[in-house]
Amino acid sequence: MTGMKIYTRTGDEGETGLWGGLRVPKDAPRVQAYGTVDECNAAIGVARSAGVDTYLDALLARVQSDLFVVGADLATPGEAANIPRIGADAVQALEQAIDELEAQLEPLRQFILPGGAPSAAYLHLARTICRRAERRVVTLSRSEPVNPQITIYLNRLSDFLFVAARCANASAGVPDVPWESPRMRKEAKDE
Q1: Which residue range forms the structural domain that includes residue 128?
Q2: How far apart are CA 2 and CA 38, in angstroms?
Q3: Residue 144 contacts by C-beta under 8 Å, 6 or more apart in sequence?
Q4: Is residue 141 within 8 Å of 132, Cβ to Cβ?
Q5: Which of these, 39, 48, 84, lies nearest to 66 by C-alpha position?
Q6: Angle between helices 54-74 and 88-102 (to 10 degrees)
Q7: Residue 16: left if φ>0, alpha if ψ -120 to 50, beta else—which one?
Q8: Residue 97 within any structural domain of the chain
Q9: Are 29 and 137 in contact (CB under 8 A)?
Q10: d(C-alpha 66, C-alpha 58), whole Å
Q11: Which pLDDT tens digit goes with each residue over 10-52?
């Protein structure tokens, strides 16, 4: 059985194809946006491979699937009837998941440092990549039409990933590490 080759040589000159056939430079804002979404998706995959509980793993699997929809949405300028688009239902699902996860956690009283258990650290990394993806989409939206639900979804996803990281730490029995400002450290030293 012969399958499709992984290499096509069509990108050797620094261009790539969008859905519909339009060729653009590989550093075009649209490619930067969906490429950063792909990075976020990969970071979530690393977090999952580091071990999270079954419930969180299922939520993260759904997010990874959603991010494929976001990527396809971004890679398809204009209207295409057969391309899925991210919508308000995905945002609502994230909000529901955030509320459910937060109910299991102690309320935050101060900023925390990214880190802890490996899965939590990877989720914090995914959160920062998600924020970068959001910035790339905002940049793109200044020059080309973009589904407005994408920015909302990415904004909410970064919140979800923060809470998911805290849950991963809690599940692993690793406390979140509070951030101490230089002033707080000085006051503690002076006491």
Answers
A1: 16-190
A2: 27
A3: 29, 30, 77
A4: no
A5: 84
A6: 150
A7: beta
A8: yes
A9: no
A10: 12
A11: 445 565 555 665 665 556 788 889 899 999 999 999 999 999 9
Q: Where are the beta strands (DSSP E) in the chain?
A: 15-17, 23-25, 112-113, 177-178
The answer to whether residue 63 sits within a structural domain is yes
d(CA 170, CA 166): 6
Q: Phi and psi for 153 in degrees, rounded to 5? A: -60, -50
Amino acid, single-letter form, for residue 157: L
pLDDT reported for residue 191: 58
**What is the count of structural domains for the chain?**
1
Q: Provide the 10 A C-beta neighbour count for residue 189.
A: 7
CATH code of 150's domain: 1.20.1200.10
| pTM for the structure as a whole | 0.85
